[in-house]
Amino acid sequence: MAGNLLHPLEIDVLSCNTWGMYGNDFPADDTSGGLLGEVEAAETALREAAERGRHGAVGADPAAYFAEVIAADQKVEPRDWMPEAYRATLIRQIAQHAHSEIIGMQPEGNWITRAPSLKRKAILLAKVQDEAGHGLYLYAAAETLGVSRDELVDLLLSGRQKYSSIFNYPTLSWADMGTIGWLVDGAAIVNQVPLCRCSYGPYARAMIRICKEESFHQRQGYEILYTLAHGTPAQREMAQESVNRWWYPSLAMFGPPDTDSTHSAQSMAWKIKRFSNDELRQRFVDMCVGQAEVLGLTLPDPALRWNDERGAYDFTQPDYAELMRVIKGAGPCNRQRMEHRRRAHREGAWVRAAAAAYAAKQANKKEQASKKEKVA
Amino acid sequence: MSEYSEPTGQPGGAPPAPLWEVFVRARRGLAHTHVGSLHAADAELALRNARDLYTRRQEGVSIWVLPAAAITASSPDEKDAFFDPAADKVYRHPTFYEVPEGAAHL
Q1: Which candidate in A161, A163, A237, A373 could, as Cys together with A155 as Cys, close a disulfide (CB 3.0–4.6 Å)?
Q2: pLDDT tens digits for A181-225?
Q3: Is the pLDDT of residue A33 over 70?
Q4: Closest Cα in chain B to A59
């Protein structure tokens, strides 16, 4: 991912609060943009939209005002009037995104104790911790739409809401930690960067923060694969085998083809979504080809070739029937992931109860003390 | 769902932990800025959770947490009426005044 480096940033406080905070993470000699450049641009656009402001009243027709805000590329904020379907769509999308981050800790958690060095272990821990953080930013964004955290947790645990199908695949080798970072997080970034411009303010701001952190995830994965691909023949083979297994499930992360995608058109009109599933999938493939070459690994698609006319790579589509099966619960790890999540939640119950009891006890003590003071 | 019956704060379960708004001072010389929110049983836990959630990359040198319930907000519905008094007082801005030619340091 050379070429996607972050620009050195000026300090400015009117922002999503990530502005100026990540300037030290990357060398400053590259300003060519790329995905992180797009995140920066989205953040700039958000600031500019905020500075343009909205003159004029909400007036008697809140629906017209809402349409105006969307048309002017302004952000819709939590207490604004919004169509119920807009609210419901966002809750569904943000919640499922949050669930994916929470479940997404499991495939990598599987390798923390077996990381090949202390350095890799520390990095993997940090990455899994980031994913928990991303889940929490997103739950908080969903809560601004009027759904409670407990409802959201229940929706996941009861299986009424889904998470990304990719996390239902097992992590069989250490190389999978590399491939997940490169392909799975790479696909997630391609999906998520346009969401930094989503019309709903809290979601857009959460996505800006997440995309900046996600970039470390992708690079650490790429570095693992690069190291393996340039190691012993066995390590190289492990890396290639892992890429072979993850390539098509990663392509399926972009969802069904546009012809079958049910939510797309309205989401595009509301500027929740900016590009279609197929457009994003194509962008991902075009990025990966060069990156695979640098790794010295092969993408497992004999039909993959440059199409001069389209200015893009032709590639074999993933098996969408498999995607549907995995979404419906028949993936290799669906049951295991859900059971683990439920158990973790159950086993954490005493911690939540203890924290609440302690808070109540302290509040009570304070109250008693202030009563005594008044009497004295 | 029958296979899952553990209380998670739904009626009959424990009450949900209160919501806290988190403000971070990025560095000396800057004001605390709102960065997001989280749930925690009390202020001390809210502060520790805020550290783990919002300052994993040295994003701050100081954190405030406020119970969200303690915030009083002006509603966007009242936007015009509420902020009207300032709308017709352009003379509060220096650009309102004409400075005669030749007058310096104004």
Answers
A1: A161
A2: 999 999 999 999 999 999 999 999 999 999 988 888 999 999 999
A3: no
A4: B77
B58 three-state secondary structure: coil
Enter the tokens of residue A266.
């309205």
CB B22 within 8 A of CB B37: yes
Mean predicted confidence (pLDDT) in A121-147: 96
Contacts A338 to B, Cβ<8 Å: none
Looking from the CA of A247 toward its CB, the CA atoms found within 13 Å total 20
Nearest CB neighbour to A154, from listed B10, B35, B41: B10
What is the predicted pLDDT for the residue at B11? 43
* Half-sphere exposure (Cβ direction) of A252: Cα atoms closer than 13 Å: 21
> In sequence order, what DSSP letters do the residues of A196-216 get, joined into one string?
GG-SBHHHHHHHHHHHHHHHH
Tokens 């641009």: give the residue.
Answer: A41
* Beta strands per DSSP E along chain A: 305-307, 312-314
Q: Is B24 helix (H, G, I), strand (E, B) or coil?
A: strand
Structure tokens at A265: 């058109």
pLDDT above 90 for B79: no
Minimal-distance CA residue of chain A relative to B3 = A158
**Which of A180, A164, A340 is closest to A254 using CA atoms?**
A164
**By C-alpha distance, which of A2, A73, A84 is closest to A41?**
A73
Q: What is the pLDDT of residue A289?
A: 97
- In this prediction, residue A92 has a pLDDT band, given cuts at 50, 70 and 90, of very high
Tally A–B CB contacts below 8 A. 99
Report the candidate in B59, B57, B23 with the shortest Cα–Cα distance to residue B38.
Answer: B23
CA dihedral A325, A328, A329, A331 (to 10 degrees): 20
Query: What is the C-alpha separation between A85 and A83, in angstroms, rounded?
Result: 5
What gap in Å lies between CA A225 and CA A221, rounded to an integer?
A: 6
pLDDT attached to residue A58: 64
The model's pLDDT over A1-24, given as tens digits with 9 standing for 90+, comes to: 344 333 333 333 334 444 433 333
Specify the amino acid at residue A43.
E
Residues B17/B40, Cβ–Cβ less than 8 Å: yes
8 A C-beta contact, residue B33 and residue B52: no
